[in-house]
Design goal:
The chain has about 425 residues and is an alpha+beta fold. It has helices at about 5-25, 55-70, 70-85, 110-120, 130-145, 165-180, 185-200, 225-240, 245-260, 290-300, 305-315, 340-345, 350-360, and strands spanning about 25, 30, 160, 215, 225, 270-275, 280, 285, 325, 375-380, 385-390, 395-400, 405-410, 415.
Length: about 425
């Protein structure tokens, strides 16, 4: 009997298999594919998205190049950076930067996340000076379009604060300052982080949690998403160091306590915790769990082992990670009886988070194994109908009996659909 691989061996194999899968998702202009999300889904538009998927791709590939010294990772990194550079529009925004609402542009937190990726990876880029220029133009445009004199709105002309998006923007602004020494963005970063603190619960059963949204910039909306709370942590930790303000570190620790208290025994988290104690338990992220684990790492805290193993167990034979469990239960919030197609379909903009996390967990220096990937074929449901999900390096499809309910050629920016049950917006 062969010995079970160690956790480090599993991480090493997982990251190279994921890297191989990501390369199957490339097409002219960048990384494409369908999007499954809590808010909306995009299964018809499958073209490149210059959104938060590039944060994890750029940081992940830069980290892999740094830890392995393998020029192949730098080659992938340069190609990904060139996607963002070439996709910048004349006003400084990025093409197709709204993830679940692509191919629209001026996406939040997506443009700031892509810019953060550029800046974090800049020391490893062949075109580093150009990357800094592109990042500055994007940040200037975000300030121009979203700053209202006191803070940043989520959309131009619509007053409202979204703390996790503010944290991502602050992170990009602070990375620019740290990289260039230009402190001009620091007041904007501080204002963004101060708004995160403004909407954090100071007492009660959800102490430490941050409201998802503050309409009109006033009181929070009483919804606490563990995933989006975790997205705030790395920026708060950096802010404590760069701005010399311990309040930000205490806020990050408060979020960590909220995450500790809401994790299920299987290493998953509910989608939403409401101020009245009610929960939306489903869907529960799989690939996206990497950002929650990254929050623990940012604080120097041990990651919950059960959550890390749950993430690793969700990797498909193709090398991509499943998106979630429980999309079938999103509306009624009853425990799901089968895997919904949105649970299983791997999405670049969730898998980048796994790439980034796993790359950070590798020792340095390290030597990685060869990829070991294969075609995927799994039973799923499309609505109430039993279906089959198939993925190869060339295509994804859903079949209901002999009918193609969904088909996507990975080289094409638009999918072909044959069944209205698949959410194709």
């Amino acid at each position: 009997m062969m010995d079970e691989p160690s956790l480090q061996d599993r991480i090493a194999q997982a990251v190279v298999d994921l890297g191989a899968w990501l390369e199957t998702m490339r097409q002219p202009g960048g990384y494409g594919g369908p999007v499954a999300h809590w808010w909306q889904n995009r299964f018809q538009y499958t073209g490149p998205g210059l959104d938060w998927r590039y944060e994890g791709i750029l940081i992940g590939y830069a980290t892999l190049h740094e830890k392995t010294g393998d020029a192949a990772w730098r080659g992938r990194l340069d190609v990904a950076a060139d996607d963002v550079i070439a996709g910048q529009r004349p006003d400084g925004s990025y093409r197709a930067s709204r993830f679940e609402m692509n191919p629209d542009t001026l996406g939040t937190p997506h443009e700031a996340a892509a810019t953060h990726g550029l800046l974090a990876a800049q020391p490893h880029l062949s075109n580093g000076e150009k990357a800094v220029e592109v990042a500055r133009r994007n940040l200037d445009n975000l300030v121009e379009k979203l700053w209202d004199g006191r803070g940043f709105n989520d959309r131009p002309g619509v007053s409202g604060r979204v703390p996790n998006k503010l944290a991502t923007l602050a992170h990009a602004l602070m990375c620019y300052v740290r990289l260039t020494g230009d402190g001009g963005y620091l007041p904007y970063a501080k204002a963004a982080l101060d708004d995160v603190l403004r909407y954090q619960m100071a007492q009660g059963p959800n102490v430490g949690a941050v409201h998802q949204y503050a309409p009109g910039g006033a009181a929070g909306d009483g919804r606490f998403f563990p995933y989006y709370n975790a997205r705030c942590v790395p920026a708060l930790v950096l802010g404590a160091d760069l701005l010399g303000d311990e309040r930000y570190l205490e806020a990050a620790r408060g979020i960590k306590s909220f995450l500790d208290g809401t994790m299920h025994h299987d290493g998953s988290w509910p989608q939403i915790v409401y101020v009245n104690g009610r929960r939306a338990a489903w869907p529960r992220w799989l690939a996206g769990t990497a950002d929650i684990l990254l929050a623990y790492g940012s604080l120097g805290e041990a990651m919950p082992d059960v959550a890390l193993r749950r993430l690793l167990d969700s990797q498909l034979p193709s090398g991509g990670f499943r998106t979630a469990t429980g999309f079938q239960a999103q509306i009624r919030q009853a425990a799901p009886s089968a895997a919904d197609y949105r649970d299983v379909v791997p999405v670049v903009g969730w898998n980048d988070k796994a790439l980034r996390l796993l790359a950070t967990m590798l020792p340095s220096p390290t030597t990685l194994p060869a990829p070991e990937t294969a075609a995927t074929e799994l039973p799923v449901t499309v609505g109430a109908a039993p279906a089959l999900f198939r993925e190869s390096p060339e295509a994804m499809e859903l079949r209901i009996g002999h009918e193609a309910a969904y088909a996507w050629d990975k080289h094409a920016p638009w999918a072909t659909t044959a069944n209205g049950q698949v959410n194709v917006r």
